[in-house]
Write a structure and sequence with these properties.
alpha/beta, seven-stranded mixed barrel, five-stranded parallel β-sheet
């Protein structure tokens, strides 16, 4: 979608170095080789489009099978001290190399690609002081640290903040271990996470063929850079003694529900969950490094020697072609496969719902080393409970088949009836014989020059790709004014992530086709007025048109669009948490949404709404959330003055269906430039108008 938006700007190339990564469309079915072959056929038109755009604009192209964007970025592009934008919420993974890597929507990326100043509301800085090192038993890892912190901060505790880690505990971790911490900072809403430059970063840069970068970083560090200034003050400081942490599982259905492994059997009993695991999955952008895989392989070898095999489906996803090739050379792949693991393609796979799992509606529990566990995310089953853990814990538990198993203290029965206890895996930070590059076909041409005569490959009859049409401004002649009178579509109850707004899984094939993907708008959202999922009320339904009083949310939104009826949405806390998926902003805008009123917003999604010309307003009194209902008529008051630069507050005049009129105060975070986006109809409209003037 970022490329489709960039294409509308009429520029011959990107103003900054850019890369394209094909990691979202390989479905996990039988294993790496067959899954990749199948994906190349079923997704050919999408891959051909991306490759043609890369050639035309001089962008490095990492094709399907090359790996997950975040692992590739860490291996090839990230460098201490730099600023990086990426169109995925887990872009901060690159922070493991001591930089500021920030997840954004595609329209924000277009700012950078067009040379337009990119802006961000100045974040607060939370200092996280890591003391000491993990317990001697060896089972606690950086994954457990960030799972613990997520439980402490909650999914919105890092919103509007950069998490800056410091202390001796930072220097005791590997570079890829720090990347795991930074990766899951997204789960607490953090703008990004970063660390001072460490010897482990230097070693990783040398190992990945970037010695000149390491040398430059060494010089900068000697000069006093790449670390916090002496006497630096933080807005808040959190102290964590690593020696007190233990292996942790987070979930289900939210990544901030943290339970130490020693207390998990108690939770299991309290909730009445079955003490069984239906699948174990390791990998994803959070935990697919060489170090992670060596730990898993070490446990697999121990299990084999004890006569054990995995008791449940055990799936492993390498992070990149480099990791896959090195695993194969060093015997890690064989060790995993010998105990029943299936090694998947180098791609996102089950973590984002690309998993062809046998359909089921039964309650079941899976263990993963992923970063998110929202309802229905992995396999489409709302009753699948995903508990997040470290690769070591997930691997060990795959051989027990039980949720109550704790590898720190518990044993497993072998086929001969003996009791076997795992030894904590040590892991290898970097391969002794260096990294193996693997298949050269997966690697891009470095620094390609634009080929302006390259045609962009989009079929006019495609169901998966379409050229974007600019959104119209809400304001006649683009003059400052109030938003047009709107109807409230619905009031959304509780957690509403970007997965709820724009589902992933099988819908990902429509990411390049706004009309088709919009048909999944809010299909797993809960209507606060009736408690039903994917049900909206149409108070203006016409029997003559065979319209029913209730229908699915996309169907009612389509009716509003057909009537040219602008609409608004009322939502709950932290609306839009999770992925940077800007389809969650594009889709409501496509159907005619002009305003979203929230108790609070997640950072990336709020910006994405602004970029697409949807006004996000915060309720000044959160109790006003229940005062606005479906069918209510909503008008803004004060927006015209705000756009003209003479006012700050915006009120909502809400006319209830019984005629009662309410005046509701709101707040906003709109900057002067963002108000120009709203007035123009979108940020891209504004950029285009500036370039044409």
């Amino acid at each position: 979608m970022a490329l489709l938006q960039f294409m509308t700007c009429g520029l011959p190339s990107s103003a900054v170095p850019a890369s394209i990564h094909c990691d979202h469309l390989i479905q996990a079915v039988t294993g790496a080789e067959e899954d990749l072959k199948r994906s190349l056929v079923t997704n050919a038109e999408v891959f051909d489009f991306l490759e043609s755009a890369a050639k035309k604009y001089g962008i490095e192209f990492w094709g399907p099978g090359s790996g997950i964007i975040h692992q590739i970025v860490l291996e090839n592009y990230a460098a201490p001290g730099m600023l990086m934008l990426g169109t995925d919420s887990h872009t901060p993974n690159a922070g493991g190399l001591g930089l500021l890597a920030i997840g954004v929507g595609g329209a924000d990326a277009v700012d950078a690609m067009t040379g337009t100043p990119w802006e961000l509301k100045a974040p607060k800085i939370t200092g996280i002081h890591l003391k000491g090192n993990f317990p001697e038993h060896g089972w606690t890892s950086t994954k457990d640290l960030i799972l613990h912190l997520a439980g402490k901060l909650t999914v919105k505790g890092g919103t509007g903040r950069i998490l800056e880690y410091f202390g001796e505990g930072v220097f005791n971790q590997s570079c890829t271990g720090l990347a795991t911490i930074a990766n899951m900072g997204a789960e607490v809403g953090a703008t990004t996470s970063t660390f001072p430059y460490t010897p482990s970063m230097r070693a990783y840069l040398h190992a990945t063929g970037r010695s000149p970068v390491a040398d430059a970083a060494d010089e900068a560090a000697i000069a006093g850079y790449l670390r916090a200034d002496d006497g630096a003050e933080y807005d808040e400081v959190i102290e964590i003694n690593l020696a007190e942490l233990e292996p942790t599982l987070n979930g289900p259905f939210t990544p901030d529900l943290a339970t130490p492994l020693s207390k998990f059997p108690i939770l299991l009993q309290e909730k009445g969950w079955k003490d069984e695991i239906s699948a174990a999955l390791i990998g994803s952008c959070t935990n697919s490094s060489y170090e992670d895989m060596t730990r898993a392989a070490e446990l697999a070898r121990q299990a084999k020697n004890a006569g054990l095999t995995a008791k449940v489906p055990f799936l492993c996803t390498p992070g990149s072609e480099q990791i896959r090739a090195t695993m194969e050379r060093d015997g890690l792949t064989a060790a995993l496969e010998e105990v029943g693991a299936t090694v998947l393609a180098n791609a996102c796979g089950p973590c984002i719902g690309q998993w062809k799992r046998p359909e089921s509606t039964e309650e079941n529990s899976i263990l993963t080393s992923f970063n998110r566990n929202f309802k229905s995310r992995n396999d489409g089953n709302q009753k699948t409970m995903n508990f997040l853990g470290s690769p070591s814990v997930v691997t060990a538990m795959a051989f027990s088949g039980k949720l109550s198993f704790n590898p720190v203290t518990d044993s497993v029965s072998t086929p001969t009836g003996e009791q076997f206890k795992f030894t904590a895996p040590v892991g290898v930070t970097l391969p002794e014989n260096g990294f193996e590059s693997g298949n050269p076909a997966f690697y891009p041409t470095p620094n390609p020059k634009p080929q302006p005569n390259t045609p962009i490959v989009i079929s006019p009859t495609s169901s998966r790709l379409e050229v974007l049409e600019p959104f119209e401004s809400h304001f006649p002649n683009n003059e400052p004014g109030e938003l047009p009178a709107m109807t409230c579509l619905m009031r959304v109850r509780g957690k509403c992530t970007t997965d709820h707004i724009s589902a992933a899984g099988p819908w990902l094939k429509y990411k390049g086709h706004l009309k088709n993907i919009s048909e999944n708008l809010l299909i797993t959202a809960v209507n606060d007025e009736n408690g039903e999922v994917n049900v909206a009320m149409d108070h203006d339904a016409k029997e003559s048109l065979e319209e029913t009083a209730t229908d699915t949310i996309p169907k009612v939104a389509q009716r509003f669009k057909a009537r040219n009826q602008p609409w608004a949405l009322v939502v709950d806390e932290n609306y839009g948490e999770g992925s940077a998926r800007e389809h969650a902003a594009l889709q409501p805008r496509y159907y005619g949404c002009a305003l979203i009123i929230a108790r609070s917003f997640a950072r990336i999604h709020e910006t994405n709404l602004k970029k697409q010309g949807v006004l996000p307003l915060w309720l000044a009194d959160k109790n006003d959330y229940t005062r606005i209902s479906s069918g209510d008529k909503i008008q803004t008051e004060g927006l015209a003055e705000l756009l003209a630069g003479s006012r700050k507050d915006v009120f909502l005049r809400v006319t209830k269906r019984n005629g009662e009129v309410l005046l509701i105060k709101t707040t906003h975070t709109m900057s002067a430039d963002q108000l120009k986006w709203l007035q123009a109809g979108s940020a891209l409209n504004h950029i285009r108008a500036q370039r044409q003037s």
